[in-house]
């Protein structure tokens, strides 16, 4: 049923473009009460999640605010990363803050939402307003979470076992500003604060 609705919505969008509506047209504009730190579209639903320093808000694809929620992170910290887990089934919302902690919410759009997991994904993270904070990426197929930021390692997590699998030294003197993992969970690519892009292979033995 959901796939049929998505296909119908896509066909409606195609009909709109055929009538001369430009794809780069701004479809909605809204001013948030505080500066957004990160945001993401739900992969399968018409939902946008926008996080600021200590909370997140949910919007529909017409620009209507649906709900706002606190993340319960400490006062001096800020949310710097978010991603959807299990988006194809019963979705969870994961938010990472610059103190190295992640929180995972079930029923994240409800007033009765539940905190299903919270753990320290990174340790000894310096809190700085100009740092990259925590950056992360998630691979649904392998249920692998990778995290980094203002540290000199990329930490790999097996979320099924809630277990740290590996710490990979970055070899960089600058913080990691962005991360991505391939669909097999083997290759990791990191963007660094010195302007370099580095690719790491988990299958190779330590140097």
UniProtKB/TrEMBL annotation:
WD repeats lie at residues 169-201. GO terms for cellular component: cytoplasm; TORC1 complex. One of its GO terms (molecular function) is protein-macromolecule adaptor activity. Keywords: WD repeat. One of its GO terms (biological process) is positive regulation of cell growth. InterPro entries: Raptor, WD40/YVTN_repeat-like_dom_sf, WD40_repeat_dom_sf, WD40_rpt. This is Putative regulatory-associated protein of mtor isoformx1.
């Amino acid at each position: 049923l959901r796939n049929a609705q998505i296909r119908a919505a896509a066909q409606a969008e195609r009909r709109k473009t055929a009538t001369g509506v430009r794809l780069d047209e701004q479809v909605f504009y809204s001013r948030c009460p505080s500066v957004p730190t990160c945001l993401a579209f739900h992969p399968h639903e018409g939902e946008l999640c926008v996080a600021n320093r200590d909370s997140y808000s949910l919007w529909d694809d017409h620009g209507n605010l649906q709900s706002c929620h606190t993340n319960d992170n400490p006062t001096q910290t800020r949310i710097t990363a978010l991603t959807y887990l299990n988006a194809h089934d019963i979705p969870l919302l994961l938010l990472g803050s610059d103190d190295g902690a992640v929180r995972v919410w079930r029923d994240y759009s409800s007033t009765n939402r539940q905190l299903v997991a919270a753990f320290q994904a990174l340790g000894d993270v310096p809190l700085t307003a100009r740092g990259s904070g925590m950056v992360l990426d998630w691979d649904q197929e392998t249920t692998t979470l990778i995290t980094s930021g203002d540290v000199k390692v990329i930490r790999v997590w097996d979320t099924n076992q809630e277990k740290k699998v590996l710490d990979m030294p970055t070899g960089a003197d600058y913080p990691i500003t962005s991360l991505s993992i391939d669909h097999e969970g083997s290759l990791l690519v990191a963007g660094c604060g010195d302007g370099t892009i580095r690719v790491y292979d988990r299958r190779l033995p330590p140097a």
